[in-house]
Amino acid sequence: MKSNGNLVVYAYDENNIEEPVWKSYTEGEGGQKVKIYDNGDVLMKDENGNVVWNFEQCKSNKLEISDKLHSDQYICSGNNKFGLGKKGELVHYVNGILKYSKDLGKNGVSNFMKMKSNGNLVVYTYDENNIADPVWKSETSGEGGQKVKIYDNGDVLMKDENGNVVWKLEYNNADNNCKSNKLEIYDELHANQYICDGNNKFGLGIEGELVHIVNGEVKLFEDPGKSYGDENIMVMQDSGNLVVYNGYLDEPVMWKSYIASDGGKLVEIHSDGNVVMKDKYGYEVWKLQDNYINKLSSEIVKDENIGEIM
């Protein structure tokens, strides 16, 4: 365990000189100790007890030919991660912040990612006959790709044997189910659907979380705290409220904008990332303010000086 926060395995070369053959890639993350727990987890923590590395989740910083990742496994460099989430979704974290998440289907927990010898990076799922079917790929067959690696700045690149970049992870809003740039009366969003403008998005995550992304950076990612989140629905009501509810639960309403009767007719996302509600005359009656979401309950936050805000 190094003082710079790296956990390193060394081997002696022919000249009896120590050479690193494996490391956790956590330099500069503040790691102080690595411990194995009763449940088998092997974790590195900083001086405040925060987990900066998980052995089981982070398999390496790269995938080479025939290497695989399964659900909840990643290639990592410090707090940057790329791989498959707990439900087999394609995910990318930069500095610990979720930048990208793509649902890859109902059988996601059985998904696995593989670096193919033809240069394709592919995610497979098993069908009803237990046959592996591709559900996502990098479309780089024949480009000479030899490995996919995540870097200190969060970039995920595929390179050929000469070190030339043949593919870079980039986000496509179409992948994330951008339905429109606005919600009008009775319009709905379901889990993993958003209103979008460029790299700005607002809506519901894969498990029904309230999500706001500005210029590709996640500003708000709040679980309403109920079960069956993938059944959540966001709807613009004719009362002027924007509401998230769950039809599976006895008390379905989990979040709302609390501005009924203020004449709201539509919610739209702008090119600067702002999410606003307007009345029939085009006047703004409500604006999403990420910092005022109560992190414990996701309920309305009230302040006598500023009134009711989301």
Automatic annotation (TrEMBL):
<dbReference type="InterPro" id="IPR001480">
    <property type="entry name" value="Bulb-type_lectin_dom"/>
</dbReference>
<feature type="domain" description="Bulb-type lectin">
    <location>
        <begin position="60"/>
        <end position="171"/>
    </location>
</feature>
<feature type="domain" description="Bulb-type lectin">
    <location>
        <begin position="1"/>
        <end position="57"/>
    </location>
</feature>
<protein>
    <recommendedName>
        <fullName>Bulb-type lectin domain-containing protein</fullName>
    </recommendedName>
</protein>
<dbReference type="InterPro" id="IPR036426">
    <property type="entry name" value="Bulb-type_lectin_dom_sf"/>
</dbReference>
